[in-house]
Specification:
The structure holds three protein chains of three kinds. By secondary structure, chain A is an alpha+beta fold. Helix content of chain A is 39%, strand content 21%. In chain A, 39% of the residues are buried. Chain C is mainly α. Classes of the chains: A alpha+beta, B mainly alpha, C mainly alpha.
């Protein structure tokens, strides 16, 4: 009897916890409501299965518990029942998979009008790079990283000259415009993760990865690293500011381009290095 | 009923397997230390696995101290990462894999298929000693300068071998990789034995379809392990080369703390593919033996045949085969080509179907049974609860787009602890309560067992069910302290403290369990030969516990499958596999 | 981008498909479709019916494991190759002599299993053992030659793979020589057992020869061309 009650308590407790507890996802700030919708569908289907399975088991334990004189049935298999259950399960799985794949298709299809924004990760800070007026990011290479070129941008690529560099500072993005986050790391794996945006992706040294989203809410959002990257992993935070277009433009005007920083740094290193 | 007619006067077909008597040791060391008896090796394996598992248990307490009470117990980040890494690695490889295959596999396979011992007893013994060596190397890494590796149990390069990670530039990671390599070598020796014993040493009448599902589960898992562990071996060897000999298999051009390193051209993703090519089958290497054992526990203690035995066998084989083409569902956000997401999400969700069939069949075995709520049955029931729970959250993470927000959060941690931590552990406990009488001739103490069960079942559910919601809030895994970021609208500190307290209580209950094992070996109630009135062959040995060589002068002959419970017309509610009883009239 | 992401597990998957197909075919022979609860009685079937000695089966399973190991290395090789084009290694000429020695060893072990008198069996086995020893020494010479021309272990991916894979292959060969020695010693001069044990070794040698030839194809860049052909056919 205790077992039956315990099983029912587990089910009811789980459902109540799900419905009543205050812990739920943080309000969304991007276009990925579809992801949340798929998640909700999955919660419904799996919640139903969990409840049905455990309650059925509790019923069996109660109804067929050992009593003097009880004899179990001899029932090796039941073809029709098994096929029926398989089909129903297949349908349930398809009902979760189909919307999932449709949304994934959107997730991996970057819209043409998306602006590229580069995120540059290293142990344990975030830097960013925006394309300049030409709208293109210049090429880069980890081998070029040095004190005068912390992001490893090719100084010989004309597209890179006007790129805007934001070193270890907040990134501003205009609301309502799709962005393609181009992700780059030069030391270990990192993962660009803003819980409100729902999307995330690993950053792999030697590779350029990406994901896209459209910010839909104004505010300051914390960036976390979601792939273990060494002892500073827990402290690798940054901020993304989603702002109206005008404020974004105002911020943009204050930023420095790669060419400006390059000149400045070269002059400085030259003067501080007596052997030059 | 298509009974193959059996006439008692008929000569039993001659043994086609020559009845080989295993070598009998003459010295004390030969019998108790370097034993070649699979039963004794099984106990050595289990004891070692449990001992190192206790280390992992203590590590989990330390982790929970940090997570639950970050203001009171603040470990350094280095120490925290070392705790989680070693906890994960020990639990998955050195405890679960070793105890299911090395422990239960060694003990049960020869007895269940009616063999005198494993086919290569010497290699079997060697397997244990290499495993022990692997464990010792692992333990040694706690005592070297820099301590054990803190790279996370996935050991992803480049960070695993760089200086920003504990043990990365010290000996920690080297010892870890060496220990894994040794483990794989040792396991291969054992695995060869399990496979060949099942294939070639079955007794007369023991056809494949008469084997208990326990043997099917362990057998399939062993085959998978033999094919999958080489992937981990390859990954470990290549990483050792990168770390010690400056090759660049996994290492691209790197700049570490402003310094250009000498690596170039490699790819960390290659490691991830190799690792998960092993890592995903590994989940089923642990799960399939659990599936098999739990089927037998439910059947015996519900006095009913396993419902849909054939379907259960096919499901085990299909799950085993499919599990080799789902590995990249661990890598949806790893930066691999996004189009692989479609393929791997589909294969992953397809695996849910045979798995669900197994769950239905367990339930249908209970249906119209005669359910004895013994301790093994209680643990089997709790396995179904935790496994279904963990399996269902797997549908979140396997469905590629749903995985995106949840991956690398505490949701993942909760999911895999539920499905491959708690659920298989429940089976291990159930199996120990079930087979302890066979191993010692005595029953485990019931009162202590009841306390152990309730604390463990309710406690683990209380730990891992709420943990999903910590992940849903967005808290990433592998953070010693999340702090107070704006995205957390309702603080999770209280929940974390609750989880930690539950974890301490559950851990303490395991000490009671170990005490029970030790205490009952002397003081337990006498079990008799077959306390659960089970039909399968391991309970039909002439002595309990079975002697070296398992059987009397003649090997047993098997007349039926392992699940003849409550057969209409039979004198008792079970018919042992070696009982030639036959139905006189065909039932309608 | 697909190739550039290094997701090419073709080799191991092909190997696994083979093994799984074999396993399923075998299972279907074993009456997995039967209904065991309807069949009572001492079935006229037992394990070991195949007449396969356990040692042979054990060796077979072991070779599958080694096969899986080298197939995975092959996959890793091809995944790594997808990332960057690297010039294939100029193999030192001594490698060809080594290959010939390994072929000779394999042939003589096979011959030995056909011998009926112990003396010639011993002679052929000894020749095979010496040829294998020559192979190992030759491999060390090949490493030396590579070092001399500047293709050290960390000089590039081709060289790294060559050292690692030929080294592991060599370790397996070394293990084989030890096993051959132990098995002959344990046969205790019994010609039937000696022949059986040498037969086991012959299978192992053949298998390692096949593995070595597969590795040579990889090192020579032929696998690369083969993949290109496959891709052209597919696209």
């Amino acid at each position: 009897m205790v077992v039956v009650i315990a099983l029912v308590v587990v089910v009811v407790g789980s459902i109540l916890f799900h419905l009543l507890s205050p812990w739920w996802w943080t309000p969304i700030a991007s276009n990925w409501e579809y992801i949340d919708a798929t998640l909700v569908i999955t919660f419904w289907i799996t919640g139903f299965v969990l409840t049905a399975v455990i309650l059925f088991m509790a019923y069996c334990v109660w109804r067929f518990r050992h009593e003097p004189g009880r004899v179990a049935a001899f029932e090796p298999e039941n073809r029709r029942l098994e096929i029926w259950l398989t089909v129903v399960t297949g349908l349930g799985v398809a009902a979760m998979l189909a919307p999932g794949l449709v949304v994934w298709k959107q997730f991996v299809t970057v819209p043409d009008d998306a602006t590229e924004v580069e995120v540059f990760a290293q142990q344990w800070s975030w830097s960013f790079r925006l394309p300049g007026e030409d709208g293109r990011l210049g090429t880069s290479d980890a081998a070029l990283v040095g004190p005068d070129n912390p992001l490893g941008i090719s100084p010989f690529d004309r597209f890179g000259q006007d790129d805007i560099i934001i070193e270890s500072d907040d990134l501003y993005l205009p609301i309502g415009k799709p962005v393609k986050m181009v992700l780059r790391s030069v030391d270990v794996l990192h993962n660009f993760y803003v819980p409100e945006f729902r999307a995330k992706m690993d950053m792999v040294p030697g590779m350029v990865t990406y994901f896209w989203f459209t910010p839909t809410r104004i505010g300051e959002f914390e960036v976390l690293c979601a792939e273990l990257c060494g002892v500073g992993h827990g402290h690798m935070r940054g901020y993304v500011q989603i702002q109206e277009e005008t404020e974004y433009q105002a911020w943009l005007q204050e930023q420095r381009t790669f060419a400006e920083l390059w000149e400045e740094r070269r002059v400085r290193t030259a003067s501080s290095d007596p052997e030059q | 009923m298509a009974n193959i007619p059996y006439r008692p006067d008929e000569q039993v077909p001659p043994a086609e397997v020559p009845d080989v008597h295993p070598p009998h040791p003459h010295t004390w060391i030969g019998r108790w230390v370097f034993s070649q008896d699979a039963k004794y090796i099984a106990i050595q394996y289990s004891a070692t696995a449990i001992a190192i598992g206790l280390v992992a248990l203590v590590l989990s307490w330390l982790v929970r101290l940090q997570l639950g009470f970050p203001d009171v117990f603040s470990f350094s980040a280095e120490a925290y990462y070392q705790f989680i890494t070693m906890h994960g690695m020990i639990m998955v490889i050195y405890l679960l894999t070793a105890i299911f295959l090395g422990g239960f596999g060694n003990y049960l396979i020869p007895l269940m298929v009616g063999a005198r011992d494993m086919v290569f007893p010497f290699v079997n013994m060697l397997s244990y000693w290499v495993y022990l060596l692997a464990v010792l190397v692992l333990v040694a890494s706690f005592f070297v300068p820099g301590g054990p590796t803190g790279a996370g149990w996935t050991l992803y390069p480049p960070q695993a071998i760089l200086s920003g990670t504990p043990g990365g530039q010290d000996a920690g990671i080297i010892l870890m990789l060496l220990s894994l390599i040794l483990f794989i070598i040792g396991f291969t020796m054992g695995g060869l034995n399990y496979v060949v014993t099942v294939l070639q040493a079955r007794t007369r009448g023991m056809t494949l379809m008469r084997m208990p599902l326990t043997v099917w589960g362990i057998f399939t898992a062993t085959v998978m392990a033999l094919l999958a562990f080489p992937a981990l071996f390859v990954a470990c060897v290549m990483m050792l080369f990168d770390r010690l000999l400056s090759t660049s298999f996994f290492m691209p051009t790197l700049v570490e703390m402003g310094e250009q390193l000498s690596y170039g051209g490699g790819s960390p993703i290659v490691f991830q593919h190799l690792f998960w090519f092993f890592g995903h089958p590994e989940v089923y290497i642990v799960a399939l033996p659990a599936f098999g054992i739990v089927s037998d526990l439910i059947s015996v203690h519900a006095r009913k045949n396993v419902f849909g035995y054939r379907m259960m066998v096919w499901a085990i084989v299909i799950i085993g085969a499919l599990s080799f083409i789902v590995w990249a569902h661990h890598m949806y956000v790893s930066g691999m080509h996004p189009y692989f997401g479609f393929f791997f999400a589909t294969t992953t969700l397809i695996i849910a179907v045979p798995t669900a069939i197994k769950v239905y069949n367990w339930l249908l075995t209970l249906w119209r049974g005669d359910i004895h709520l013994t301790l093994p049955m209680l643990f089997a029931l709790s396995f179904v609860v935790t496994f279904v729970n963990g399996g269902l959250t797997g549908l979140f993470l396997g469905n590629v787009v749903v995985d995106v927000p949840l991956s690398d959060t505490m949701f993942v941690v909760a999911h895999f602890h539920m499905v491959m931590g708690v659920a298989p552990l429940m089976v291990i406990f159930g199996a120990i309560y079930h087979w302890y009488p066979l191993m010692t001739g005595r029953m485990l103490n019931e009162a202590m067992g009841q306390i152990h069960f309730w604390v463990t079942f309710i406690g683990t559910y209380a730990i891992f069910f709420p943990m999903h919601y910590v992940g849903l809030v967005g808290v990433p895994r592998r953070y010693p302290e999340i702090g107070d970021p704006a995205f957390i609208t309702t603080p999770v500190d209280g929940l974390n403290a609750f989880i930690s307290i539950a974890a301490f209580i559950v851990g303490a209950a395991q000490i009671l369990f170990l005490f029970n094992i030790a205490w009952s070996a002397r003081n337990g109630r006498d079990a008799g030969g077959n306390p659960w009135r089970a039909a399968s062959l391991e309970w039909q040995t002439p002595q309990t516990p079975p002697r070296h060589g398992n059987w009397a002068d003649e090997l047993p002959v098997v007349y039926r499958w392992a699940y003849d419970y409550s057969v209409p017309g039979a004198p008792e509610d079970f018919i042992a596999q070696d009982d030639p009883w036959v139905q006189q009239t065909a039932p309608t | 981008m697909g190739a550039a992401n290094g997701t090419n597990m073709t080799v191991i998957l092909a190997f696994l498909v083979m093994i799984i197909a074999l396993a399923l075919w075998w299972l279907l022979q074993q009456g997995v479709m039967s209904k065991p609860w309807l069949e009572t009685g001492p079935m006229d079937e037992a394990a070991g019916r195949s007449g396969f000695p356990v040692e042979r089966l054990g060796l077979g399973v072991f070779l599958v494991v080694i096969g899986s190991l080298f197939a995975l290395f092959g996959s890793a090789f091809i995944m790594r190759m997808d990332l960057e084009i690297w010039p294939s290694l100029t193999l030192p000429p001594v490698v060809w002599i080594n290959t010939a020695l390994l072929v000779i060893a394999s042939i003589f072990l096979r011959l030995a299993t056909r011998r009926s008198d112990t003396r010639r069996l011993t002679r052929d086995t000894t020749i095979a053992g010496l040829a294998t020893g020559g192979f190992l020494v030759g491999q060390l010479l090949a490493w030396r030659e590579l070092q001399v021309v500047g293709d050290g272990l960390a000089s590039g991916p081709a060289a790294s793979f060559f050292y690692m894979l030929s080294g592991l292959h060599g370790l397996h060969i070394l293990g084989g020589i030890l096993a051959l020695g132990v098995l002959i010693a344990r046969s205790g001069g019994d010609p039937v057992r000696t022949k059986f044990n040498v037969g086991l070794c012959a299978t192992y040698w053949d298998f390692l020869l096949v593995v070595w030839i597969g590795l040579l194809l990889l090192f020579m860049g032929l696998a690369n061309q083969l993949l290109d052909i496959c891709r052209t056919i597919l696209t």
